[in-house]
Amino acid sequence: MEESELMKNCEALIIGGSAGSLEVLLRVLPALSPTLSFPVIIVVHRKHGTDSLLPDLLSGKTSLKVKEIEEKEQAMAGTVYIAPSDYHTLIEQNKTFSLDYSEKVNYSRPAIDVTFQTGAEAYKGKLVCMLLSGSNSDGVNGLKSVKAWGGITVIQDPETAQVSYMPAQAALQLKIDYTLSIEDMADFINLLS
Amino acid sequence: MYSEVSLINDEQVEILLADLLDHYGYDFTGYSRASLKRRIIRLYSLDKALSFAEFRYQINNDPVYFKRFVEQITVNVTEMFRDPVFFKTLRDVVLPKLGTYPFIRIWLAGCSTGEEAYSISIILKELNLLHKSLIYATDLNPVVLEKAAQSMFALSQMKQYSENYIASGGQLDFSSYYTANYSLAKFDDELKRKIIFSTHNLVSDHTFNEFQLILCRNVLIYFDRDLQHKVLQLFDESLQPLGYLALGSKETLDFSPLSKNYKRVPAEKIWRKVS
Ligand SMILES: C[S@@+](CC[C@H](N)C(=O)[O-])C[C@H]1O[C@@H](n2cnc3c(N)ncnc32)[C@H](O)[C@@H]1O
């Protein structure tokens, strides 16, 4: 895979996903380098009240530190952060997280759009956002913001997605920088470091 | 209702915050910016403002619009018996302890449209403590307080609230607490009798009483660490020894120097003032 100049500056990776994305995470996380030079922030739609389950599940799959986001926490390199259920996760200019219990966006809380958009403004050209399998279009507007602020957009190849709607919508509505199969994702992420 | 590059930039947000402080004495400078900015942009596009200059002028010169602005940039979303397990702990652990006192004074700070206040009132009634309790339900925003005082909520929410109520340990028929009126559920006046709704700004107003229980849930997440410390200090001053402080499910006392004086109720965001 080619390395772009831009990608060498990656300061954060945000991954958004919905239906069918857990399986992707479970395959990608084990292959990630244990010394990533940026934080990995994961926003997936899930049921309220199942909070500690996802960090537990994912931390068994990687040697990177995995934790649920706490409000006002600083995003650190080499850590995988999971957005809590039922709150929106926002990223501040000083790279700390804020949680917000405002209205659902795209019928979702957390909404991928909210984290992508605030992340885009905080990290600007040094952000990579990746949208995975899912059945609504949450995340698509967020990717547009990422583009507008100079970041890099990535989608799961809709052909490989359990539910293709979300990445397919993204590809329809904007020019995506990279379209990846599940097999290529870990290599791609490791190369950003 | 979104923009690729913001309709309003960071400097403009700061200008508006400075205006609010100068003209109205409302200090939002200690609020987390990402959320605030998102709300301001949301309102800007919702109200189809023509330019930043026009938007700013209206906020500064039209008191009615100013009210709307404050209402819209703060997050007012709430529910009855939200986080049922929390209310179960109130019912099973905290309130029975306080029930041994001759009188229970409760401060519910950031009560929004009142759903939480009526939930607590229902539990107090079921524990047979309502007659000797008083709930001070406060918020900075007069608009939500007016709504709260009407004790009417959307009927469409009642199924969810009834489920929450049962999950929180409620055993009665939840619908016995309200009468359906078109699309609204009007809650019994009895529940309201022991609630005092009034404005109080956690940023600038002082303590106004001593309480055995203070609840402030999902308000501190909007504040930066300094303001959180300041507000926790205010709660500490307002809490009687052995009183309880309850925060939202993502909020904590851990980072405050005050935490050494408190003992946490296991598994809940509730702390007891032990010294
Ligand atoms: C998300 S609601 C929380 C409602 C309820 N406590 C709950 O957890 O469901 C936040 C409330 O805090 C209020 N608020 C924000 N800043 C405040 C301040 N400085 N003083 C008092 N209330 C404030 C807002 O007006 C809003 O009603």
Describe the structure.
The complex is a heterodimer of chains A (193) and B (275). By secondary structure, chain A is an alpha/beta fold. Chain A has a single domain, classed as 3-Layer(aba) Sandwich (Rossmann fold), CATH 3.40.50. Chain A is built from six helices and nine strands. Chain A has a seven-stranded parallel β-sheet with strand order 3-4-2-1-7-8-9, with helices on both faces. A two-stranded antiparallel ribbon of chain A has the order 5-6. In chain A, helix 4 packs parallel to helix 5. The longest helix of chain A is centred in the middle third of the chain and has 12 residues. Chain A is globular and about 35 Å long. With 275 residues, chain B is an alpha/beta fold. Chain B has two domains: 70 residues, no CATH class; 190 residues, Rossmann fold (3-Layer(aba) Sandwich). Chain B is 41% helix and 19% strand. Chain B has ten helices and ten strands. Chain B has a seven-stranded mixed β-sheet with strand order 6-2-1-7-8-10-9. Chain B has a three-stranded antiparallel β-sheet with strand order 3-5-4. Chain B is globular. Chain B starts with 9 loop residues before the first helix and ends with a strand. The model of chain B has no long low-confidence stretch (mean pLDDT 96). Chains A and B meet through strand 6, helix 3 and helix 4 of A and helix 2 of B. S-adenosylmethionine binds next to loops of chain B.
